[in-house]
Amino acid sequence: QKEVEQDPGPLSVPEGAIVSLNCTYSNSAFQYFMWYRQYSRKGPELLMYTYSSGNKEDGRFTAQVDKSSKYISLFIRDSQPSDSATYLCAIITGGSYIPTFGRGTSLIVHP
Amino acid sequence: GAGVSQTPSNKVTEKGKYVELRCDPISGHTALYWYRQSLGQGPEFLIYFQGTGAADDSGLPNDRFFAVRPEGSVSTLKIQRTERGDSAVYLCASSLTDGNTDTQYFGPGTRLTVL
Fold first, then answer.
1. Less packed terminus of chain B by CB within 10 Å, N or C?
2. What's the confidence (pLDDT) of residue B100?
């Protein structure tokens, strides 16, 4: 079992839909949680970062962490075709600096 | 430019050859990271530099892989006796310091194909 599990998709939604992307993890020592967006043939770009259970909002994006269930989510409201990309969750243990990435979920938002 | 740059963008080589991949981090960033991303997978950590020294090379898969950062800026990832299984996108990232809350900024990657 991988430390971070993520469904690869693809997830296809119509423009304007609410998108839910999820990861599960196995190591309770994980303390820092991140979401990256990666466009085709580009490097990952940090979208959201949080270290506590609960919700964190930034514009159309909301990151949610449930440490008791070892489950993290990214919600995208009013999705746009420009949101079409691969979304990677990444998690860091306390005291470390190296993220462990999920395999990424491919999102397609069609007009 | 202000971002992390990597050269070449694509490299095709034959099995058994030696390759060098270059990373130019954001100016002033002391921490530099190399990752490898295989098709359909997330990036996997290879090695991390703080300044000129390799602070953590635990992700290097074997002794065919080596990286240097002699002046604390540009880094080169070197792969000897390449194998087909080395084919992947090699990503470089830099951050201002090595704190676990510091944002890592990624370059576009070098796509390595070993024939």
1. N
2. 64
